[in-house]
Amino acid sequence: MRKLANRFTALADPTRLEMLALLLRRGELCVCDFVETLGITQSKASRHLRHLWTAGLLEDRRAGLWVYYRIAPNLDADRKALVSALTRLFEGRDLNPLE
Q1: Of residues 64, 61, 57, 62, the one with CA closest to residue 86
Q2: 53: buried, middle or exposed (CB in 10 Å: 19+, 13-18, 0-12)?
Q3: pLDDT band with cut points at 50, 70 and 90 for residue 92
Q4: Pseudo-torsion of CA 90, 88, 61, 79, nearest 10°?
Q5: Which among 3, 68, 63, 81 is positioned nearest to 30, based on CA atoms?
Q6: Residue 33's closest CA among 48, 44, 22?
Q7: What DSSP string describes 23-66?
Q8: Is the predicted pLDDT of residue 94 greater than 80, yes or no?
Q9: For 51-88, what is each residue's pLDDT tens digit?
C-alpha cells in the first residue's frame, strides 16, 4: 500500500499533473519545454519531474546538456492503470499544450 500511496502523492500536485498531461499529448519533452510552457523555473521543473520519475511514471534520457522525459513505456499494472485513467481525464480539456 505504501508504494501506491507514494504514486498518488506524486500525482497530488497541479504542476506535476500539467506535466503529465503535456507528456501524454506530446510524447517526449525537454525540461526547457516545461519551463517555457508552464512559466516555471528550470529548478522547479526538474524537481517536479524527478518526483514523477521516482514514482516510476517517467523515463529520462540525456542529450548533451538537455534532459528529455517521457511516460515510461514498461509500466507495471498499477502505474499503467493510473496513466490510463489520467489519459481519459485529460481528454478534451484545454491544458495549454505545446501546439
Answers
A1: 57
A2: middle
A3: confident
A4: 130
A5: 68
A6: 22
A7: HHHHSEEEHHHHHHHHT--HHHHHHHHHHHHHTTSEEEEEETTE
A8: no
A9: 999 999 999 999 998 999 999 999 999 999 999 999 99
Cell numbers for 9: 502523492
Distance from C-alpha of 62 to C-alpha of 38, rounded to nearest angstrom:
21
In the block, which residue shows the cell 522525459? 69
- Give yes or no for a contact between 49 and 41, defined as CB atoms under 8 angstroms apart: no
pTM equals 0.87
Q: φ, ψ for residue 72 (rounded to 5)?
A: -60, 130
- Are the CB atoms for 72 and 56 separated by under 8 Å? yes
